[in-house]
Design a protein that fits this description.
The chain has 620 residues and is an all-alpha fold. The chain is built from 35 helices and no strands. It is elongated.
Amino acid sequence: MLSVLRREFSSNPSLKLEQEVARKISKTLLNSGAESLQMMPSLLSSLNSQTVQLVLSNHTLTAETCLDFFYFVKKNYQKPDLRAYITMISKLYRSRKPDKLQKCQKFDEMRNLFNCVAVDGDLRVPVTVIASLVEDACSESKCNRDKFMEKFFDILFRVYADNKMFGEALEVFEHMAKKGLHLDERSCLIYLLALRRGGQVDSCLRFFRRMVDLDVEVTVYSLTILLDGLCKRGEVEVGRKLMEEAAAKGVKANVVTYNAFIEGYFKRLDLGGVKEILKLMEKEGVASNVVTYTLLIHGYSNMGKVEEAQRVFDEMREKRIEADVYVYTSIISCNCRSGKVKRALALFDEMTDKGLIPNAHTYGALIHGVCKAGQMEAAQMLVNEMQSKGIDLNPVIFNTLIDGYCESGMVDEALRLQFVMEKKGLESDVFAYNSIASGLCKLNRIDEAKGLLFAMVERGVSPNTMSFTTSIDIYCKEGNFVEAKRVFREMEEKGNVPNIITYNALIDGYSKRGNMKEAHKLKNELENRGLIPDVYTFTSLIHGECIDGKVDKALKLFNEMPHRGLVPNVVTYTAMISGLSKVGKSLEAFKLYDEMKEKGITPDDTAYSLLVGSLHSANV
């Protein structure tokens, strides 16, 4: 380009002026640096993109000096054009040690310039235009064209990927492939990772296939990024096929790859798949690491396989693989979920004895366990301990405590905790409101429960299925079935699907009021929706039929329960005994009482009183 300018120099006055201005600026930069240009407003008044280009192309100026000038112009006068950016990048690329720009600093400066090119909409042009400008920069600087082109487009590809500009990045990649430029596997890895983090698994798969087609080196790292995305999306079969294809080409899966499959199979609740992967790991000689064990313990725990989770934990210790805080948290959580709080506390002590520091998740799991066991004093002690270690309560722990207090009948303590939570700037969510409303209902503080649910909606918290169900239950207990049905309709209109608990609230309400026709209609409706009646459903209907004096219908329902795999509880037996006693069927009532005891169900005082009452009635 400079040679063209020189030819036209004598015949073009404007070029002559630009050349003279560029010469004077260059001289000033050499003698006293970019800041001194502030004192030369008349010289800079003639500054334009061509002048900037001539200065940046001056071979007597170092990269450091040119960079100072570049940023001076950008800050004080005008935004450099794309050609200026590319020329500056070329200058930095060719700079050596005398320029005082160390390698790391030089790369950072280049990357910063590339980033500006990528994100500035005014500089965005097709890759072919960029390529043409890069060709010009190579000609002017007489640098190694192919080497510079490869480096330039490789960095541009990475920068586009980092900025989630996937279309532009792919355009650069295809340009490089077309021109025969070397495609760096590490850069492809960055692009795959960016796609994966952006949730674009399909694009990830297409790009990986393209890499294979172009014979770009594929390593286990790029393979694993793709497989992890597929497994998290549940496409483990596609992933397995890809893993087999890669193995045939010499790319062997590592422990991280297999861990992705273990997590994927657990997400699908596919224990068979998990076992297949573990066998494959053993066959290929790939040893499990701490992440593998964490996934196994967590996965088995979520599926309620407590003994299996414990077996994996024991195996890990036998193999002398040191458990970290995440492993301990998983096994502690597993024991808490299964009600083995004492064991969970022992594991917690073991963990701290090893010098491992519990985190919020560890404390959260333990607090959940003791709350579930109704040990609220122990929960408070754990809260005090975690706070003393600088770990503050998060919304999940607040909700766990609120629910624990409500389940223990300590609703006022739950309300106090809600106030503390909100004073800390944490908004109560629907879970907190539901727990407190349910707790108030259990204490028959119905008006407070209704007021709380109204306040929740007013504060912009959207009710969920449980919120609507609680409201329906309140109205049913009040005998206000018109309002209960209205809430039921509203619930469906807002996209909340009624569950078995919702139907049970309505069935129980109608049964207790003697409207068995509506109660049975609701039972049929829930079954038509694919829901399965549970013990509570049958108990409510049995109770209702007994209230209505239709003991034969109640007995029919009672005898139907075992055929449905349902085991009557103490409330079911008591309702049936009550019905039989009221119609004078003492022998049948006593028979049920004995049956209940034989099945290990402890009768309450109500059942005994009913039996005594039935004998008294019979004697009368």
